[in-house]
């Protein structure tokens, strides 16, 4: 019985180790645009201005931000880490801008796949997705930290 118990625990340890070693590391959120903008690199401050409607052009390039549906994991991370707001504060921000006639929020896409497709077909678009979803037709302009 003692030997079976040791074998069980050894087997369990090996299984857990294999699972831990093969599980991918948490992916990063990245801000992307079309690969047509391959020389473009942006700062967090520039991205924040674009997504808050304070700027439409950065470094001579007109960019149109697209957002993900409210409540997605990626959107929550983007709002917190890039825009430095909570979802509630961002909603209030846009309510004020809309009411005063001074802006409209970025268009919302269903999910990261929709953002990717939109950006591939609209070279002026800019959005954010998980870095594991990036492909050759897209260009990373910023990695969210």
Description:
This protein is α/β, with parallel strands linked by helices and 145 residues long. It has one domain (27-143): Periplasmic binding protein-like II (D-Maltodextrin-Binding Protein, domain 2, 3-Layer(aba) Sandwich). The chain has 5 helices and 7 strands; from the N terminus they run H-E-H-E-E-E-H-H-E-H-E-E. The strands form 2 sheets. It has a 5-stranded mixed beta sheet with strand order 5-4-6-1-7, sandwiched between helices. A two-stranded antiparallel ribbon has the order 2-3. It starts with a helix and ends with a strand.
Give a short summary of the structure.
This protein is α/β, with parallel strands linked by helices and 145 residues long. The protein is built from 5 helices and 7 strands.
Q: What is the secondary structure topology, with strand pairs?
A:
Elements lengths: L1 H21 L6 E6 L9 H8 L5 E2 L2 E2 L1 E5 L4 H9 L5 H14 L6 E3 L2 H10 L3 E6 L7 E6 L2
Parallel strand pairs: 4-5, 4-6
Antiparallel strand pairs: 1-6, 1-7, 2-3
């Amino acid at each position: 019985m003692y030997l079976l118990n040791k074998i069980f625990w050894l087997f369990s340890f090996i299984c857990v180790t294999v699972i831990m070693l093969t599980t991918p590391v948490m992916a990063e959120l990245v801000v992307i645009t079309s690969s047509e903008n391959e020389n473009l690199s942006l700062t967090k401050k520039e991205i924040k201005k674009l997504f808050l409607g304070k700027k439409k052009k950065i470094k001579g390039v007109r960019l149109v931000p697209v957002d993900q549906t409210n409540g997605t994991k990626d959107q929550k991370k983007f709002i917190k880490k890039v825009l430095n707001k909570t979802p509630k504060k961002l909603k209030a921000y846009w309510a004020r801008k809309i009411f005063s006639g001074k802006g409209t929020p970025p268009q919302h896409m269903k999910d990261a796949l929709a953002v990717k497709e939109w950006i591939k077909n609209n070279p002026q678009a800019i959005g954010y997705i998980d870095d594991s979803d990036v492909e050759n037709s897209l260009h990373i302009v910023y990695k969210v930290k």
